[in-house]
Amino acid sequence: MSSSPTDMNVNNSLVARPIPGMFTRLWTDSLRHWVGQYSHPMTWTGLGLFVFLMLFSWLGPVLYPVSPLAIHANHLLLAPSWQFPFGTDNLGRNLLARMMDGGQATLEVGLLGALIAISLGIIYGMIAAMSPRWLDKVLMRLLDALLALPAIVLMIFFAAIIPLNALSLILVLGCLSWPGLARIVRNEALAYKEKDYVLAARQFGASTFYIARTHLLRSMLPILIVNATFMVADLILALSGLSFLGLGIQPPHASWGGLLNDGLQLVIIGPWWMIVFPGVAIFLAIVAMNVLGQGLLARLEGR
Amino acid sequence: MSAWLEVKNLDVRFHLGEGGLLRQSQGTIHALSDIHFGLEQGQTVGLIGESGSGKSTLGRAILHLVRPSAGAVYFKGTNLTALPEKQMRPYRQQMQMVFQDPFDSMNARMTVGQIIMEPLLLQGIGTPGERWQKAEALLERMGLDRRAMNRYPGQYSGGQRQRIAIARALTTEPQLLVLDEPTSGLDVSMQARILNLLRDLQKEMGLSYVFISHDLGAISYLAQNVIVLYLGRVVEIAPTATLISSPAHPYTASLMDALPPMVRQRERPHLPEPVGDPPSPVNLPSGCAFHTRCPQAEAICSSDRPSLNSVGSGHQVACHFPLRDVYPMKEAVHAE
Amino acid sequence: MAEKALHRSHIPLRESDMRSDRVQNLQVASPSSAGAGLQVRDLTVTFGRGRKAFNVIEDLSFEVAAGETLGLVGESGSGKSMTAAALMGLLPWGGKVSRGSVQLGDTDITRLSNIALRTARGREIGMIFQNPLSSLNPSLTIVQQIAEPYRLYLGASPTAARKHALYLLQEVGVPDAAKRLDDYPHQFSGGMRQRVMIAMALACKPRLLIADEPTTALDVINQAQILRLIQRLQKEQGMAVIFITHDLSLVAEYAQKVMVLYAGKTVEQGPAEAFFSAPRHPYSQALLHAIPRLVNNEERLTDIDGIPPRPQEFPVGCRFAERCPAMTPECLTAYPPRSGDDHHFYCIHPVGGAA
Prior knowledge:
Chain B: Residues 7-256 form the ABC transporter domain. Chain B: Pfam families: ABC_tran, oligo_HPY. Chain B: Keywords: ATP-binding, Nucleotide-binding, Transport. Chain B: InterPro entries: AAA+_ATPase, ABC_transp_ATP-bind, ABC_transporter-like_ATP-bd, ABC_transporter-like_CS, Oligopep_ABC_C, P-loop_NTPase. By secondary structure, chain A is mainly alpha-helical. Chain A has a domain at 103-300: Orthogonal Bundle (MetI-like fold), CATH 1.10.3720.10. In chain A, 71% of the residues lie in helices and 0% in strands. Chain A contains 11 helices and no strands. Chain A has helices at 22-38, 41-58, 60-63, 95-130, 133-148, 151-161, 166-193, 196-203, 208-244, 256-265, 272-300. In chain A, helix 5 (133-148) runs antiparallel to helix 7, helix 8 (196-203) packs across helix 9 (208-244) and helix 9 packs antiparallel against helix 11 (272-300). Chain A is elongated. Mean pLDDT of chain A is 85; it is low at 1-17. Chain B is α/β, with parallel strands linked by helices. In chain B, helix 6 links the parallel strand 7 (176-180) and strand 8 (208-213). Chain C has a domain at 39-277: P-loop containing nucleotide triphosphate hydrolases (Rossmann fold, 3-Layer(aba) Sandwich). In chain C, helix 5 runs parallel beside helix 8. Chain C contains 12 helices and 12 strands. Chain C has helices spanning 15-18, 80-88, 114-124, 132-135, 142-154, 158-171, 177-180, 190-201, 220-237, 248-254, 272-277, 282-289, and strands at residues 38-47, 54-64, 69-73, 95-104, 107-108, 125-128, 208-212, 240-245, 257-262, 265-271, 338-339, 344-346. The chains are: A mainly alpha, B alpha/beta, C alpha/beta. Chains in contact: A-B, B-C.
């Protein structure tokens, strides 16, 4: 079975026995290395901003346990005050609470939708890259066809026929966004497939699946993460767009796009707080993700 | 009588471009043609040739990484080329390869430890702890710090990375190593380090090497026998000392002419230079592959392909007009 | 060329081993024509600013006369490519020549303005790089690229430039030159591309040619042909040549002067014959003995433990000390003083006895 590890060793006393925690140390060392590699002011800014928004949405309700659904009939359309820090809407609901609730939905859709898109993209792209040439060609032509379809029209089509809650929106948006990533995955995989270390792994007896999982995925991970961040931003924007068409998260639940839409409907009356707060939140979320992506990209390109 | 590693009538062709419904196949590269040689255990054979000579392809064919179009590779009596991949697995442990580019031959996103342990992992040898220990032991033998296990290849220089690659190749305790230009692109002192290391390892562990290079100096440091390749064909095989003192093929002589005097250490033969560039491997010349550039080519050279003939003990040449006594008989310079 | 008596040394070399006997030994131009040559004094290149500043090369001084070849030897990290860049005024962003002067003829090119420097670069200095494929623009034809410097700096008309390009291609030995003028770089083989690069570098008959590892990517036979070509053109045009390489055996064959760099500083420098018959610095010696030769190789090659220090971490004292077999504590306290005149070195424990 195994050959004695001391066969080739000259100095036995220096061979350490496996130390408990050895593999954990490997993990933390790795983490430190990669953080060092990819650290960049933009990365930290973007990440920090997005984490702040996430904390706002999920930790906020814990610290400010006000119901987003409670209606205060004699506090309609009030400007921000101590009692209502973000003001109230046309039904007297506390806008700050609604922003937190809406934040959860919006960020969920962005993050989970991107996750689905990436997973599907990786699977499809890898299969295309590792399959025989003819199959790769077929799969890519199929992908081209999918990419040619106008995403917005499809979004509207699907949104009109499915129940409009966070989960289904996540699924729909995720399933409409994966083709772009699939193409990137397939191209990267093809490039890395020719590297010597893949040949070496094959020499050691590696299966195709092992090569795809261990070598190819690892090599393309940074570029995938960069694309993922941009995708999160895109999905948040897409959700906002759907909200304007009335196809986003349905009342009484909120999303930032929906809140923005509500405010814009009343723009004649001029409740600036109903427009500014959601608008700024969407803006910050998108900027955060873009800046994060750009920071990672800068490091990737060696700047 | 067959040698420990035997290559018989090996032929490798690559097809360029795909044929298909709408496009013609763009031709065939005849990478290797009728290669025939043997290697005994514990010895080193040097493969020398320029780019396009097929030497890398030969290294990969020996390891069954490239499928030959004809011929066979015999290892300890077994015909490797006839084996399906499953049966090839146990043999993969016994023959390993060190690649040319120390940057690309390792995944930069895996730690050095993971890289070295990978063959053991894939072959299912040992427990994780045992694999770790073995990798550490090998790192130390290569002269690298044990802490490298948790570091990444990007933190090391080309020479150090090449040593890591050698460590990786040694994890499964192979008996045969194919080294594909392991020292090209390295600085001179790193090159020397690797060459010394390879020599020591061969003595310690009884390894056999197929050493592929374009550097005759490095080959002569390690190899007992040398094979000269040109455009996929063997043009000369000889024991190293014989090749250096009396090369019989004009191509070999021109290779040695081109060496700087410090390396060559001999008086220079007055052979004219070969003319022009090597032809493309897609359109091989008729007859002798070297005839388009050979300073002493004659009519027969373009029509008849010369076969390997013996001109001395262990010395074979494929030439219609092999050279004799190219170097004057006077003694080497260092005998002072 | 006088016969020289060879003194016994560890490197069994005869003078004929150091010169290829196919090409005549160059008669070195007399120093009185120093006006046409290159003189570098105390060249120092610094990166970064303030406390984070570090030097990649320090206090380099050397001269190359017209018709002479200087072999600049160093391994990766020694600063040899940075020296070439400094001479050309092509330092990467963040680097500058903080000290020293580079005199080409009677102009100090470190003091030139950008525009004047560009002209000087094109007309007076030619450079060939290691990788000819990445140094040639793949979307321009050869004639466009060779003729470019000629048109730009000498104001030639397109027809005249084309004729000149044809002449240059023929000079560098490209077969069928007339037909190949309108080809693209990828249609040439590696050796041919390098010849095209040489043609480009020589378009304006420069006074100085810098060859930065010109043959590392080439096969042995091509290598010899390219180097002999450079040597022939040098003789015909009376250029000074700086030949940058890590391969001492090539320097022995083609250079009249040698300069060995380690970690940004010169460790040994001198006429080639003196250097190769008796190198004094342990690093030079190690480099020389690390080259595998065709015969007499039962002995181990010399190898050196460790790697060179990074520019940010250059130690006080001798930079080679921690890898040197002859190190003593004094080596670490201060940089060794210069010993010798024409053939000089910086070591307090040189090979072959006291400094």
